From TrEMBL:
CDD domains: Delta9-FADS-like. Its main location: membrane. This is Stearoyl-CoA desaturase 5-like isoform X1. The keyword Transmembrane applies. One of its GO terms (molecular function) is iron ion binding. It comes from the Eukaryota. It comes from Branchiostoma floridae (Florida lancelet). The keyword Transmembrane helix applies. Keywords: Fatty acid biosynthesis, Fatty acid metabolism, Iron, Lipid biosynthesis, Lipid metabolism, Membrane, Oxidoreductase, Transmembrane, Transmembrane helix.
């Protein structure tokens, strides 16, 4: 079935239609409270990733194919799977309800989502809905107005601004929590995430004789690279790039981020039309997540893919675009 563009009011409409809250209390921010435990964990992870980088030349080629996304390799296993768990799963399915998925696909997405270790689907979707509704205000968990570092990683190293929690509690998430797959994933999250993110990626390479130390640190490297690719959507894609659809918002079309984040860098389009399952109007161009969802639709596992009609896009481009629409569409060809 072809993607629909006649969608009725989507579940997340309440989340996406509003402009930033006028009640957000700018200027009254409490002092930033650093969470030292997170600073230590993130520092150790990044140091482990650098160590993993040094181990790359001595690693078995199969280990590289298993763990990393090698552009020249047909095997894109751990990086791509974990990324799809976030992009096709937590983001486009659960947070935005931009398409529907049958039970086997939802189970698969919940399992590979554990591999990304980015908080469980419920917490991830809640923060993301708050991000869209209150973008670039104190209630935005990774408010890019607080600078690149805060939007990228800093927000995970400090206590949340009280507005994030108060506004977040007003967001309807019953649709997410009513999904039994989300409930089970939330219950089992800690052990499942450690198993999927570190234990399995470390043990599998021993099948071809890889040392556990090398496999472990290359897994850490994979995790840290995927985290940074994700965070770039919040930092770089909220700062740099053109705005063919809406010049009045900060999210921008960012090609390098789209490459690293499986098609999630088309952020000006995404914030303008958050209910579009493809997060861009460029089809499969630099958007492996859309390719995956379309493939799942072919198998009958995904359906009701919501798509914005070209007429609506054109109207929006001429009303609020920055004038780069034609040029930016051509530059991707
Ligand atoms: C990670 C997530 O990296 C990355 C998400 C990025 C999103 C990107 C989106 C872009 C689009 C998609 C792109 C995908 C690209 C993928 C490409 C892949 C290659 N509303 O949290 P607490 C409540 S995670 C309502 O402790 P603190 C909460 O329920 C990395 N309520 O706040 C709780 O209530 P109760 C690994 C909320 O103390 C209470 O508040 N994970 C909300 O301020 C306290 O909650 C980590 O590093 C809300 N929004 O601590 C973990 N939020 O008491 C990091 C919270 O009743 N997290 N509440 O239960 C933490 O350690 C802490 O959350 C903290 C804040 C220190 C950051
Ligand atoms: Zn954003
Ligand atoms: Zn989104």
């Amino acid at each position: 079935m072809a993607p629909r563009n006649d969608f009725g009011p989507p579940v997340h409409m309440e989340v996406t239609k509003d402009l930033p809250s006028p009640t957000a209390q700018d200027g009254k921010a409490p002092p930033t409270q650093i969470v030292w435990r997170n600073v230590v964990i993130m520092s150790l992870l990044h140091m482990g990733a650098i160590f993993g980088l040094f181990l790359l030349p001595s690693a078995h080629p199969y280990t590289l194919m298993w763990v990393m996304k090698c552009l020249c390799s047909p095997a894109v296993i751990c990086y791509s799977l974990s990324a799809l768990g976030v992009t096709a799963g937590a983001h486009r399915l659960w947070a935005h309800r931009s398409y529907k998925a049958r039970l086997p696909l939802r189970i698969f997405l919940a399992i590979i989502n554990c591999m990304s270790l980015q908080n469980d689907i419920y917490d991830w979707s809640r923060d993301h809905r708050v991000h869209h509704k209150y973008s670039e205000t104190p209630a935005d968990p990774h408010n890019a107005k607080r600078g690149f570092f805060f939007a990228h990683i800093g927000w995970l190293l400090v206590r949340k601004h009280p507005d994030v929690i108060t506004k977040g509690k007003q967001i309807d998430l019953t649709d997410v929590l009513n999904d039994p797959v989300v409930k089970v994933q939330r219950k089992l999250y800690a052990p499942a995430a450690v198993l999927m993110c570190f234990i399995i990626p470390t043990l599998v390479p021993s099948l071809w004789g890889e040392s556990l130390v090398t496999a472990f640190f290359i897994s850490v490297l994979r995790y840290v690279l995927a985290l940074n690719a994700t965070w770039l959507v919040n930092s770089a894609a909220h700062m740099w790039g053109n705005k063919p659809y809406d010049k009045f918002i900060n999210p921008s079309q960012n090609f390098p981020v789209a490459v690293l984040a499986m098609g999630e860098g088309w952020h000006n389009y995404h914030h303008t039309f958050p209910y579009d399952y493809a997060t861009s109007e460029l089809g499969w161009k630099v958007n492996p997540t859309t390719v995956f969802i379309d493939f799942m639709a072919r198998l009958g596992l995904a359906y009701d893919r919501k798509k914005v009609s070209p007429n609506v896009i054109r109207a929006r481009v001429s009303r609020t675009g920055d004038g780069t629409w034609e040029k930016s569409a051509q530059s991707i060809d």
